[in-house]
Amino acid sequence: MTENELEKEERMYKSIIKTIKQAPLEEFYTSGHRTCQGCESALLMRYLAKISGERTIVVGATGCMYVANTTYYTTSWVVPWVHTQLGGSGGAALGTAAALRALMRKGKIKEEPINVIVFCGDLGCADMGLSGVSNAMTYDYNLLIILYDNESSANTDIQETSMTPYGAQTSFSRPGTARRIMKRRWKKNVVPMIIAGHRNVRYAATTSPAYPLDTLNKIKKALSAGGPTFIHSLDPCPKGWDYDPMYSHELGTLAVETGIWPLYEYIDGKIVYNEPTKGIVEGRIKRKPVREYLEKQGRFSHFVEEDYDYFQKMVDEMYEKWEIPGVMPIRSVELARK
Amino acid sequence: MTQVAEKEILLNGTQAVAYAAMYADVDVTAAYPIRPYTEVMDTISKLIADGQLDAEFIIAEGEHGQFEIVKHASLVGARTLVGTSGVGWLYAMEAIVVTATDRAPVVAVIGNRALDDPGAYGVEHNDALMVRDVGWLLVWVDTAQEAFDTALLAYRIGEDPRVLIPVGVSMDGGFLTHSEQIVRLPDRELVKSFLPPYDRGKLRVHPDNPISVAPQVNEDWVTEIRRQHDEGMERAREVIKEAYESFKKTFGRYPGTTRDITMPENPFVEPYMVEDADVILVGMGTVSKPMKVAIKNMREKGVKAGMLRIRWFRPFPAEDVMKYLANAKVVCVVDRDYSLGSPFRGGVVYHEVRSSLYDLDERPKVLSFIGGLGGREITIQDVEKIIKIGVEQRDTPLTRHTYWVNVRGDPW
What single DSSP character describes residue B337? Predict the structure, then answer.
């Protein structure tokens, strides 16, 4: 490791906060929004604004975090905020970061670190926006793209996306008398796609707003890592997942404890597991049955035994068969080495 | 004084715009390849590599990304250059529209190209015309010199705080994008005095100016915001006039003027032999070349023909069109585009011209000629035939509105 890299790593870890009491008191995402009760994505917005602070530009792709947060004259953003089109997240990140770099280099604005954060939902990141996000990850601009994943197109009344879990009901995948399961494709695995395909990404992570300290630190590390960084947050959505808003955090933790949503970081080629996922992968914590998580949500109310079994089998494979548990569906490294 | 650092070099239309961007000291450029505009970005990339231009050069993942990149860079306060052609322009359409509605004064080069399918590389104006209703300033240039001058003007006009509207500089694919001409490049110091730094003022996105851009306004405000945009478009007329005057004052020549061409002093249109003409041709872009030769030929035969080349299509120069066409008997609008199913099956420019003339007490007949599609050449002979049809229609009651130039299977 070169001295420069050591310095960067040190800077990254120096910034970590140890307890929630160390989190900054000041809020940069405040009143004025119209998000639903129990909205975990709104909480994620609050975390990212809080931890990135005043010297930040936030760009938001079309989605519920656009529509609900920025009603004209009641914007909830204290930091500058700009809308980008649904497929524009990557381009918006590049354009903002490139402008800052050029203007600072040419002496047209003051030289200083300014965070560029772009958030996008299922469609704006994993579907329509994917090629743009990928392109942004190939350049060396300092930018953070956050996928706030509520597993549906929540803003348009809960339609299926590539991020919707297997079998879930949405208004594009309602069970019928002839077909019980309309959503048959497995959820897209985005962070591994980013880290496998973009070598100059130094930091990427999965997160859940149910783990505030972990989430705050991940955003902080991403912003201090340098270059393009990526965070994928699983955000329980009472409206889309069909549960009482009071259970948002509980579902967030259950997603992790059942192993469905592993929490990990990718730091310069290393995978570091966090929170219960660490214990699960190390064999110290037993995964809860996926049923405990699925049964609490109306969107899986049509599931029968074989659906639970299939779901459980798919999650078991993540930890029992994958070379990098919970992360990358590669099983053949040992075979290849022989 | 103005001659000190002026020089002449050989450039094609696309290179001329890249040079203008260099002279304008652009900060951020976004590229994606599609013929025939691409050489703009080939040139920008080389100018950066050679240290002649200090700018960020980003290769987007597609045209949509290209326009998102420059829109956001422009909102932060960077001067930007972007460009595309044909279906690339359409692929970016969503981003192109919001570039205008977010009032980001990017400059885009459109190397006009036919839309797919079937495939054709050649010029057609339907690509750029797709945005005619959504608040872009649109200009068509005719020579490499005009491309260079107009690109400089585009930054000055679009970035003016009274306007803040993106500018689409269109040039005919092949005929101008790829033809080399001598271009007079001005003294760089003079460019600085002509083109002030881009300043978004209170609309700049920066932590020192924490605004929210493009929130949800719904029916509460969208009408007023569109109206503001319309006012900006209307104010652009004055700003365009000022900019052309200032260009002349600064560089000692009217935009578009070269050693060989003296451009009449009107920013919006180029009138040619219109004073006594009773058949006047109207067109945009390089079609002016065969038009001018055909007009001379026909005048030798005693036909009083003239031409009005529309340069600025948005804002549309209705007053100039009225002024120059009022005394014509017949106006022959040559459209390098089509508007299928439109009134009288006419082209897009035809409708604009026809509408502009409506309030005249004595209106000329207006004919639509659709031709030159997909890059097909409109020859001198074609234009002579157009003039002849104009003469025939002058002397009889109108028998037909629209003709397709040289179309197989429909004699014209």
Answer: S
Sheet holding B269-272, edge to edge: B269-272, B305-310, B279-283, B330-335, B365-370, B402-404
Which of B212, B213, B219 is best to mutate for the A interface (most A CBs within 10 A)?
Answer: B212
Q: For residue A138, give the nearest of A99, A106, A97, A80 by alpha carbon.
A: A97
Helices (H), B195-258: 218-251
How would CATH label the architecture of A3-337? 3-Layer(aba) Sandwich (3.40)
Check CB contact under 8 Å for B60 and A101.
Answer: no
> In chain A, what is the straight-line distance between the N-terminal and C-terminal CA atoms, in Å?
30
Residue of chain A minimizing CA distance to B214: A83
Q: How far is B104 from chain A (nearest CA, A)?
A: 12
8 A C-beta contact, residue B335 and residue B370:
yes
A116 has a chain B CB within 8 A of its CB: no
A99–B78 CB contact, under 8 Å: yes
Residues of A in contact with B67 (CB under 8 A): 91
Question: The tokens of B316 are what?
Answer: 């549309």
Element (H, E) at B332: strand B330-335
Q: Please tell me the distance from the alpha carbon of residue A152 to that of residue A170, in angstroms, as a whole number.
A: 7
pLDDT classification of B2: cutoffs 50, 70, 90? very low
Q: Is the dihedral of CA A168, A170, A174, A179 positive or negative?
A: negative
Q: How far is CA B358 from the centre of its chain?
A: 24
For residue A211, give every residue at least 6 positions away whose Cβ sits within 8 Å of its Cβ, in sequence order, or none.
Answer: A252, A253, A256, A263, A274, A275
* Phi–psi pair at A213, nearest 5 degrees: -65, -45
Domains of chain B are: 7-251 (3.40.50.970), 269-404 (3.40.50.920)
Q: Report how far residue A8's alpha carbon sits from residue A20's, in angstroms, rounded to the nearest whole number.
A: 24
Confidence of residue B327 (pLDDT cuts 50, 70, 90): very high
d(CA A117, CA A49): 9
**Would you state the pLDDT for residue A3?**
63
ipTM of the complex: 0.95
B183-200 pLDDT tens trace: 999 999 999 999 999 999
Q: Residue B72's pLDDT is what?
A: 98
Q: Residue B288 and residue B215: Cα distance in Å, rounded? A: 44
SS (H, E, C) chain A: CCHHHHHHHHHHHHCCCCCHHHCCCCCCECCCCCCCCCCHHHHHHHHHHHHHCCCEEEEEECCHHHHCCCECCCCCECCCEEEECCCCHHHHHHHHHHHHHHHHHCCCCCCCCCEEEEEECHHHHHCCCHHHHHHHHHCCCCEEEEEEECCCEHHHCCECCCCCCCCCCCCCCCCCCCCCCCCCCCCCCHHHHHHHHCCCCCEEEEECCCCHHHHHHHHHHHHHHCCEEEEEEECCCHHHHCCCHHHHHHHHHHHHHCCCCCCEEEECCEEEECHHHHHHHHCCCCCCCHHHHHCCCHHHCCCCHHHHHHHHHHHHHHHHCCCECCCECCCCHHHHHC
Domain parsing of chain A, residue ranges: 3-337
- H helix or E strand, kind and range, residue B147: helix B144-159
- How far apart CA B152 and CA B23 sit, in angstroms, is 8
Between the alpha carbon of residue B9 and those of residues A286, B39, B109, B145, the distances in Å are 75, 17, 21, 10
Tokens of B395: 């002397």
Q: What is the pLDDT of residues B335-384, one digit of tens each?
A: 999 999 999 999 999 999 999 999 999 999 999 999 999 999 999 999 99
> Average of pLDDT values for A97-112?
98
- pTM, full prediction: 0.96
- Our CA dihedral for B67, B70, B73, B75, rounded to 10 degrees, sits at -70
**pLDDT tens digits along A279-333:** 999 999 999 999 999 999 999 999 999 999 999 999 999 999 999 999 999 987 7
